[in-house]
Write a structure and sequence with these properties.
170 residues, alpha+beta, 3 helices
């Protein structure tokens, strides 16, 4: 149920156009991930954005994406579910590669209720990096108690994550 290469390029173009006049230097494709930078037009703070689209998703929510981003010194990981989830804390579970299911955990909703933000992004990043080449299966429960399950390819995440300047490395 994944996107064709052409469909992914079209989505990427839509994202670039959505940012309007913001400066986006270039977009790199690293494995299953798209990597781009943009600076905040007001503060000048540097931003790095990395995302991959879901390869499996519920119903028609085919624009779901796993995002890793640095905005200035702030680091976030979130899943954009492509549908309304809730404005209250969200119950989630996940599995990386062939590992054990983890959770349930509580993640925070985005301001519009369509994305789930991990509370401890560095801990999750370490786990995701170990899963390079595998899959990240993510389940979230919406405001009606419905399970929504998404699967993301982690192919290339180690190389893509090198762009995350806000992460301190040993």
């Amino acid at each position: 149920m994944g996107f064709s290469y052409g469909a992914k390029r079209l989505m990427l173009l839509a994202i670039v156009l959505a940012f309007g006049s913001l400066s986006i230097a270039e977009v790199n494709i690293v494995g299953a991930f798209y990597v781009f930078t943009k600076d905040d037009p007001i503060t000048g703070a540097k931003g790095v954005y990395i995302y991959t689209n879901a390869v499996e998703y519920p119903r028609y929510y085919d624009n779901a994406a796993l995002w890793l981003r640095c905005r200035g010194a702030e680091f976030d990981i979130f899943v954009d579910a492509d549908t309304y989830l809730d404005n209250d804390p969200l119950k989630v579970m996940y599995r990386i590669g062939g590992g054990k299911p983890e959770g349930p955990y509580t993640w925070d909703p985005s301001t519009d209720g369509t994305a789930a933000f991990v509370r401890y992004p560095l801990a999750l990043l370490r786990k995701l990096l170990k899963g390079d080449g595998g899959k990240f299966a993510f389940r979230v429960w919406d405001y009606q108690g419905n399970e929504l399950t998404y699967v993301f390819s982690l192919r290339g995440i180690q190389k893509a994550a090198k762009a995350l300047f806000c992460i301190k490395r040993p």
